[in-house]
Amino acid sequence: MTMEKDMDTVEMNETTEAANTDAATELTLTDEELRTLCAERVCPQCPEKAEMEDQRLRLLADMDNTRKRLERDKDEFRKFATEKVLADLLPVLDNLDLALKHAPTSAECKNFVLGVDMTRKAFLDALSKHALEPVGELGEEFSPEIHEAVGQEERTDMEPGRVANLLNRGYRLNGRLLRPAMVMVSKAPEA
C-alpha cells in the first residue's frame, strides 16, 4: 500500500510540475506572442487576426512595389549612364562630318578623305553599340520633337516645311532625344 501511495504522490507531483510549467510559460509570453498564439489557435475569425493579415499583405505589396521601382530605376540608370560621355563625344563626330563635307576632291587627298570617312564610320559604329542612333535627314518633314530650326530657306525643289539643310545631325540614346538636329527649314519662294 505504501507503494501505491508513493506512486500516487509521484503522479501528483508530475501533474503539479506540468501545471507549474504551463503557468510559467504563460507568464513569460509577451503580448505579441499571445496575440500570435490567439490568432493561430484560439480565434481564427478574430478581427485582430484579420487586421494583422491585412497589414501583412499591405507590407508585402509595399515591398513588391519597392522592388519593382528599384529594378526600373536600375534599368533606367543602366540605359542612360553613358549619356554625358556620349554627349561629350558628339562634337568629335560633328567635326569628322565637317571634314568630309569640306574635303578637297583631288586625287592627292583621296586616301586621306577615305581614312577620315573610315574613322567616322568606325566611331559611329562604336557609338551605336551603346544605343546611340542618328536623327534628322535632308528632305524629311520638319518635326519640332527631333529638329531645332535655326532658319528658313526658300526652295523651289521641295515643298515647304521640309528639312532643306542639315547643319548638325541629332542623336537619340535608347529612344530618348540626346540632341536635336539643327536644320534649315524650306519655305515657298516669295512671289
Automatic annotation (TrEMBL):
Give the record's keywords alphabetically.
Answer: Chaperone, Cytoplasm, Stress response
Protein name per its UniProtKB record: Protein GrpE
Sorted alphabetically, the Gene Ontology cellular component annotations on this record are: cytoplasm
What gene name is given for the protein in this entry?
Answer: grpE
How does this chain assemble? Homodimer.
Q: Which CDD domains match?
A: GrpE (cd00446)
Organism's domain of life? Answer: Bacteria
- What processes does the entry annotate via GO biological process terms? protein folding
Family membership: Belongs to the GrpE family.
**Which subcellular locations apply to this protein?**
Cytoplasm
Show the taxonomic lineage. Bacteria, Pseudomonadati, Thermodesulfobacteriota, Desulfovibrionia, Desulfovibrionales
Primary role:
Participates actively in the response to hyperosmotic and heat shock by preventing the aggregation of stress-denatured proteins, in association with DnaK and GrpE. It is the nucleotide exchange factor for DnaK and may function as a thermosensor. Unfolded proteins bind initially to DnaJ; upon interaction with the DnaJ-bound protein, DnaK hydrolyzes its bound ATP, resulting in the formation of a stable complex. GrpE releases ADP from DnaK; ATP binding to DnaK triggers the release of the substrate protein, thus completing the reaction cycle.
A molecular function (GO) held by this record is: adenyl-nucleotide exchange factor activity
